[in-house]
Amino acid sequence: MRIVVSGLGVVSALGVGVESHLERLRRGQSGIVSSPRLLQTMNRLPVGEVALDNEALHHLCGVEPSAHLSRTALLGMVAVGEALRDAALDPTTKRIGLISATSVGGMDRTEHFFVPFLEDETSGRLRDVRMHDCSASTEAIARHYHLTGHRATISTACSSAANAFILGEKLLRHRLCDAVVVGGTDALSAFTMNGFKSLMILDEEPCRPFDEHRAGLNLGEGAGYVVLEREEECSRTPYCLLAGAANRNDAHHQTASSEEGEGALLAMQEALQRAAVSPEQVDYINAHGTGTGNNDLSEGRAICRLFGDRVPPFSSTKGFTGHTLAAAGGIEAVFSTLAIAHQSLWPSLRFTTPIEGLGLRPVTECQTAQKVDVVLSNSFGFGGNCAAIVLKKC
């Protein structure tokens, strides 16, 4: 049984929809801005912010503002809607599942609740906390699009959306669904920015993944989803195959990756094995590449251990979108699919100097007319949660 990608949907700091993302990837135009314009925070740090307020997102989704949905749910609705339309799926005739990832959940609305509540415990609007739970965004998306198949919410930090692919694939192989929408959504919040700032891993400038002088990550927001179907039941020409996926854990630290990238190496190895693909067959790696000192060195070492002196072209696209946390694996799966569909390599922005001791040089300019038949997409999260997926040309 072969599982294919039949629909794509994405929203991020690069804009709304696949076409706007494709154009900006080709032009090398980052969506990161110098400081938040919509998010209410005292932190003036670069972010990958979606340039639409919640009212505009409600309108875009066809939902009344009185619904008071979280920004996380709204971003997810935008991307899921595009993916369903792209795949030409009719929820009334198919059992369509939804495996949605998030880490922020409804924190963007919960923050508003606590402002008056901390002054007076009888104050605060409870409607602002009803979307707090991670699963609330999943349920809101499923209700909006009448998705009646199996639903689940995954929250394994930055590997969340990639792990959604693993569960989605299993649901299809066991014929528990006719199609599954997999991916993730996360919104910027002051709580998240404060948390990452306390870890001292936010760059005060636009991020520089895999550069010797990298100084941290930029937070972003957005959503990325793909539709998975069994090949024999897909009604359109699919983009590519979901050839393999795997999750491993290096059990090293609460937030840091192991120095030699043990979990990352194991995840990449198993994903390739499940795909029946050798390292030599990989044409492009969409690296996790956050821009932090620990992550890029750890992932770089894992890549070198796996590929030796034949490291394929690789890049981190977080210089375009910022780190969208649980949504990253979904957004980057869309980018990886587009790399195959358009035979293109996407650049790492702002790279100048290789990391000392590794010497790895990512792709720094968009390259078209390339052979891109097999893509490895990495997503590595806190707690050692490491996931990798392999996409392959049909």
Write the SSE topology.
Blueprint: E1 3-12, E2 15-16, H1 18-27, E3 47-48, H2 54-61, H3 71-87, E4 96-101, H4 107-117, H5 134-145, E5 151-154, H6 160-173, E6 179-186, H7 190-198, E7 219-220, E8 222-230, E9 240-249, H8 262-275, E10 284-286, H9 293-307, E11 314-315, H10 318-321, H11 328-341, E12 374-380, E13 385-392
Biggest beta-sheet profile: 11 strands, mixed
In percent, how helical is the residue content?
A: 25-40%
Shape, principal axes of CA atoms: globular
Structural class category: alpha/beta
- Total helices: the number is 11
Taken in chain order, the helices and strands follow as EEHEHHEHHEHEHEEEHEHEHHEE
Compute the CA-based radius of gyration.
Answer: 19 Å
What is the number of beta strands? Answer: 13
* Poorly predicted residue ranges: none
First-to-last CA distance: 13 Å
Average pLDDT, to the nearest integer? 94
Strand content: 15-25%
Instruction: Classify the oligomer.
Output: single chain
Structure in words:
The structure is a single chain. By secondary structure, the protein is α/β, with parallel strands linked by helices. The chain has eleven helices and 13 strands. Helix 9 links the parallel strand 10 (284-286) and strand 11. The longest helix is centred in the first third of the chain and has 17 residues, at 71-87. It is globular. It starts with a strand and ends with a strand.
